[in-house]
Amino acid sequence: MAYFEHEGCTLHYQQYGQGEPLVLLHGLGSSSLDWELQVPLLSQHYRVILLDSRGHGRSDKPTDGYQIATFSEDLLALLEHLQTGPVHLVGLSMGGMIGFQFAVDHPRWLRSLCIVNSAPEVKRRTRSDWLWWAKRWALARALSVETMGKGLAARLFPKPEQADLREKMIQRWARNDKRAYLRSFDAIVDWGVAERIDQIQCPTLVIAADHDYTPVQLKQRYVERIPHARLAVIEDSRHATPLDQAEVFNQTLLQFLTSVSTSQGSLSPC
């Protein structure tokens, strides 16, 4: 285990393999364990770097600093600490939001960007938006982290053969610090950089599960606004695609990274 400190917050990270640096960012209420089915393959080709965002995993759970922009600055501090130079960046869900923020704020630190089941904004514009988020806000505060984990596990891994994934998620979710989880949850609501995504110049892959919370068409609309982006849809998958369709996900991501390396040679920064 390795740690570094950024602005008074101690953050946990891990490294595996050698080669071009590849950073993997987890989702809300999770940790770098999101990527356990990717590390063995990806570390054969890349220097894989995992970060537990503040409030998650083995990182500190401070009382403040829960904004997507702050998570992005924590990432920059880690890359400077490790002296990585430009990286390939992959973000799942909240990790994808951090990826979007990082891409528009620090473009020269990116070789490529991969966004998984995420979006460049979470805005409450309609009455249904407000009602949906109000319900989630209330449930997040009323329920224990153990109860939330059981409900999410059943929704994300509903098949009988996914019992092991359900149990694993329930156990991991129970480890959440509820205060840190709620503050991270609040950081997502009304965040957005959608008006800036046309500035992203590095090769970008957006991976969308066909049964994600938001429709594939929504992802297609923002992919069309990013100059060098394309969309890959993974079938029979829900929000936790790296876990429920690990093999297809791994090959999709690896093919993208390989094509970027082939087309750009030494991969100069964006």
TrEMBL record:
The keyword Hydrolase applies. Coiled coil: none annotated. GO terms for molecular function: hydrolase activity. Signal peptide: none annotated. It holds the Pfam family Abhydrolase_1. The keyword Isomerase does not apply. Residues 21-244 form the AB hydrolase-1 domain. InterPro entries: AB_hydrolase_1 (IPR000073), AB_hydrolase_fold (IPR029058), AB_hydrolase_sf (IPR050266). Keywords: Hydrolase. This is Alpha/beta hydrolase.
